[in-house]
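Translate structure to sequence.
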């Protein structure tokens, strides 16, 4: 599904450049549950952004279903992202002046899903994530754990093949974090590929494989 070969990312500065990722070789198969671990500043989030096609400023090769992402323009990579990727952010990134229902509707409207189909899908996901009673509330009215539940629901509502999660429990108490990890585990068991960034061994234990990053290097 995903193959990175000699991927590197760097930033130029006066007098030289500093590397964030060095010679990354990584393969992720459909149905995998992979955790990227490493200390702060090791390049975890940068790697996740490249995998998620949110950052195209890198060198090396990136193949997604044998399609060369590294050769695509922004419009092409955005289309591939939209068709395949759901993203869960540590700070939720919900829209505060939209209700839970409206937050879930947004990704479907971006994909031009007909209104009746959107209504049915939102209702299904509200039930699946047990947040029907929260549908008319706004994100600031929810607890952190409830906001992250909504963020997970929003990430998967369009049926992505791969879900990327950047520190999905980082802002939560562990009791709330456990619920989020159980949701991700169920998604993976239903066939969705999951790649998460975490520094927490308890979170990593939910996955099948750990990729260790240190100063931008794997290993």
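Result:
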């Amino acid at each position: 599904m995903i193959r990175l070969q000699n991927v590197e990312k760097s930033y130029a500065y006066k007098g030289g450049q500093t590397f964030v990722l060095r010679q990354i070789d990584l393969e992720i198969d459909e149905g995998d549950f992979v955790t990227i671990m490493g200390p702060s500043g090791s390049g975890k989030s940068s790697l996740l952004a490249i995998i998620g096609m949110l950052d195209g400023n890198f060198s090396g090769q990136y193949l997604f279903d044998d399609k060369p992402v590294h050769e695509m323009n922004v419009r092409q990579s955005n289309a591939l992202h939209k068709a395949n990727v759901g993203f869960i952010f540590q700070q939720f990134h919900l829209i505060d002046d939209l209700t839970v229902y409206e937050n879930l509707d947004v990704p479907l409207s971006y994909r031009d899903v007909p209104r009746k189909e959107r209504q049915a899908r939102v209702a299904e996901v509200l039930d699946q994530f047990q947040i029907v009673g929260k549908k008319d509330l706004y994100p600031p009215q929810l607890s952190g754990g409830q906001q992250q539940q909504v963020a997970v629901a929003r990430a998967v509502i369009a049926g992505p093949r791969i879900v990327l999660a950047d520190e999905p429990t980082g802002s939560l108490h562990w009791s709330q974090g456990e619920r989020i990890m159980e949701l991700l585990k169920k998604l993976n068991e239903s066939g969705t590929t999951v790649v998460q960034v975490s520094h927490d061994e308890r979170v990593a234990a939910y996955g099948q494989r750990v990729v260790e990053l240190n100063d931008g290097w794997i290993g």
